Amino acid sequence: MIRSDPRGRQGLQVQIIDTRFPTTCLQSRSLNLAHCGQSIRYRRLLVLVALLGASASTGGCAKQVPAAAKKSEPPKVTVATPVKMPIVEWDEYVGRLEALETVEVRSRISGYLASTHFDEGQLVKEGDLLAVIDQRPILAEIARNDADLSSAEAQLGQANASLSQAQAEFKRSEIRLDLAQKRLTRTNQLRQRNATTSDEFDLREAEFAEAQSEQAVAQARIDSSKSVVVAAEAAVGIAKANLSIAKLNLQYTEIKAPISGRISRRYVTEGNLVSGGSADSTLLTTIVSVDPIHCYFDADEQAFLKYMRLASEGIRPSSRDVRNPVYLALANERDGFPHWGHMDFVDNRLDEETSTIRGRAILSNKDMKLTPGLFARVRLPGSSRYDAVLIPDRAIGTDQAEKFVLTVGDDNKIVRKVVRLGPISHGLRIIREGLIGDERVVLGGMQRAKPGIEVAATVEVLEATKESLPDTYEPVPEGQWLTPKRKVAANASAPIGSPPTAKPAIVTGAAK
After folding, report:
1. 396 in a structural domain
2. pLDDT per residue over 61-72, tens digit each?
3. Whole-number Å distance between alpha carbons of 226 and 235
């Protein structure tokens, strides 16, 4: 007896009941006939019966096959046309903020720190009084040098008087010499006429020789007096120089801020002995400028070569030649790059160890949000303005070292295209090569889309997000440059030939 499975298409069960064998041999199994057959002929008969039953069952289900054999529908995918728009690529680097000017405040003279006059961590202006060294030894030195100057000036006056006296004596010797010469001449004339004696002539001749000797002595006194005058003048100059040094040291007792900026803490408190005037002078505090501020960053060799190529092709000017704009954001500023500045330095060579080149930007810091030492993200233009092709990253596939996208052709068949990628801009990925911008790029259903198969495409519209940086730029004109002009420091502001600085006021009292 053969029974079909009541579930129809799930399979076929065959039950064979043979009354010729004992009931112990009766079994109900699915085509398992090995234990119930006794002869090869009987087994063949059972197999034939089973095959006939299966064929009959299959014939009963044939009416349901056409529904499953229907042609499958093409896979569905989502496509979109790339965004094509003019942009500027902004290259991003990690930089560190540094002050334009950093000053270590040290004393130029040694002495006890009498007082300090600044609030730690606050802003100071150029020329503000910061500290005072004990002035009493310097004041005593000024008094001594002043006395030495008076003594030297008195000696100079005495030397000038001696010179005047020697000059007067020389004048008198000239008169005597002239008189002696005239007497000798007359006596000689009288002698020739035998109108005088030889003794008279000899006397006049001796007087003339004596007058010559007196003139020579007077001339020697003049020369000696002039030497004394020169020595006295030198002594006066030395005394004046010593007095100027003493007054300058008095100025050095007042330590003033050489630059404007933010001051650090007190490294030395009042009452301590500080050394000055050498490389190992005691460090009192430090000052860093705050506005404007520098940002240093390193660009790799590939970026450097790209900038050189763009500059040589006239596409993007080099930051060595112009002041290209720069935008900066701190670590906690995620909504764009709010700080503006420009490039003002590119190093002259690459670092041999890291193969990077150092660049520097200068930024305005009116709101004092930028602090030296902070890390920052820096963006500067990496291209000129051009029309870019943009697609989302989810449309890009990876095949080992290749990047590709799937596009849908006019015949609705998938086409695989290899692309070269650029950075992110306006929330989309820049495609440098591989797309021209009018293709239908597959965005969704890429797992079902294989090259060459026909698909059913659903169109989606891509929209570029708003970028925080502009899509165009120009080099910063000279009138907007932030780089300050170099000047003489406030603690060395007296160039050679300028009039002496006024005497500082003597400061007393405790620190502020």
Report:
1. yes
2. 444 444 444 457
3. 14
